[in-house]
Structure formats: structure tokens, C-alpha cells
Amino acid sequence: MSPQKSERPREESRIPKPRNSAGRNVPVAITVGIALAALALFAVFMGPWLWYPLLAVVAAMATWEVTRRLREKDWLVPTIPLMVGGQLIIWLPWAFGVLGLVLGLIVTVFAVLVTRLFNNGAAVGPNDWLRDASVGVFIAAWIPTTLSFGAMLSTLEIDSGVDPRLYIISFMMCVVASDVGGYAAGVFFGRHPMAPAISPKKSWEGFAGSMILGITAGICAALFLIDRPLWFGIAFGISMVLAATLGDLIESQFKRDLGVKDMSNLIPAHGGLMDRLDGMLPAATVSWMLLVLV
Angle at the Cα of 28 (from 25 to 34), degrees rounded to 5? Predict the structure, then answer.
């Protein structure tokens, strides 16, 4: 009689299985993400002479992407004034600081208002002027203005001995950490929706992952890159996560209002340019404020 075989079941793998779909081609997304990060870091290390032109090109492309989507949905947003004015908002601060940014924004806003006002000529009154002009002003504040703060970080001199390029690396590091932490925690543990009416896939578990990794990145940046105390690193990390999360929610609602999934298909496995910049834009502004005011 053969010996009785053990009835003990095999132990299941201890590795947690994803609760939610990744929602993208992960290998392609990682490859493209690394390439974009390498381009950004190269521009950062080359200094303002390459960082400013890169952000100027990004501002033009992102503005065109958003206005194109709006025009597809019959919003008559003045594209040319926004693109030209966006360049003023990006470049004037290099010479005139925040005053240049304010002047560029004022000129852009008036150009948008007037252009849309006379869209049909002086003899025919415009339709939906308030709606289209308002979203044009929103775009001017949303894209080139926030990018301008990111550009000004490259010339920020507030601490002797700290290379301004490290400020850019610090805020980008925190936003990337927030994205990675939120994505991983959301895929594996996401159960409780954070704002289901705006972004159904964003969960509180993912937000917790963003906070953990974002604060860790903020502490590392403060202690090892920009020579700031521990408490500043914690505050910096929290601020970057909050700014990136709100930026993501704003862009999600923008797309929801338009009834589109992505801003475009410009970046493989990522969507449009604004789908990658949504968290970076407000984070750049908040980081400049924190570094200057605190």
C-alpha cells in the first residue's frame, strides 16, 4: 500500500495582488517616463539658457493642446493670443522677475478678452463671450503662469551656497515620488474613492502612498540638496503632494467637462502633455512660494 500523500495545501504567494487595473501599458509608460525625465534633467543641469527655452516650448505645446480640445467641443478660445502671450509670461521674468510675469499676464488677459470680443468683427456681437473669454484667462493662469514660476526657480538666489538648479530637482523629485507612491498604493490597495465625481480612480489609499513617498522625498531634498531643516522638508513634501493632487483633480474635471479621456495622444502610454504636467504646474508655483517666503 503506497504511503498517503500529504493533504496540506500549498502556501499561497504572500505578494499582494493588485486590486485595481493599472490603466496603461506599464513598460511603455516607464520607458517614456524615463526618457522625459532625462530630457528635463539635462535641461536643468544646462541652466537657464536651456531650461527657459524648454519651458517656453512646453508652454506653447500645452496651450495648443488644450485650446485644440476646446475647439473640438465648439469653444472659441483665442489660441494665437494665448500662445504669444504665454511666451511673454515665460520670458519676461528672466529680466524683470515677478514684475515681468505680472506684466506678461496682464497683456495676455487683455489680448484674449479683446480678440474674443471682436471674433466676428465690430458689426456682429460675439456669442458666449463670457464663457470663452473666462476659459482663456484660466488657461493663461493655468499653463504659462505656473510654468513661469518653474522657470524662475533656475535663477532663484536666496541661499548662499545652494545651486538654484537643486530647487528644480527638489520639487520635481517630490512630485515624481508623489505620483509613484500614489500609483502603486492605488493599484494594490485602492478601495475608498477620494473624489469619485471628479476622478473615480483616485483613492485615499493612493493619497496616503503619495504622502509617504512625497514626504520622504521632501526630507531628502531638504537635508541633502537645498540645506534646509527637517521640518521644512516635511512641510515641503506635504505641500508638493497637495499641490500635485489638486492639479491632477483640476485637469480631471477639465477633461470631464469636455467629455474626453486624455488631452491628446502625444505621449505614448501617458496621453497628452497636460496629462503629464497636471501635477507639476501647481507644484512649481507652490515650491517657488515656499522657498521665497519661508
Answer: 130
Neighbouring C-beta atoms of residue 237, cutoff 10 Å? 28
CA distances from 191 to 18, 23, 33, 95 (A): 11, 16, 26, 49
CA angle 81, 87, 91 (to 5 degrees): 150
Buried b (16+ CB within 10 A) or exposed e, 131-146: ebbebbbebbebbbbb
Distance of CA 220 to the CA centre of its chain: 21
* Average pLDDT for 52-61: 97
Tell me the three cell numbers of residue 19. 486590486
Decide: 220 and 233 in contact? Cβ < 8 Å: yes
Measure the CA–CA gap between 248 and 240, rounded to whole angstroms. Answer: 12
**Length of the chain as a residue count:** 294
pTM for this prediction = 0.87
102's grid cell: 505680472
Give the confidence band of 294 by pLDDT, cuts at 50, 70, 90. Answer: confident
The strand pairing partners of 199, in sequence order, are 195
Quote the radius of gyration of the chain (alpha carbons, Å).
22
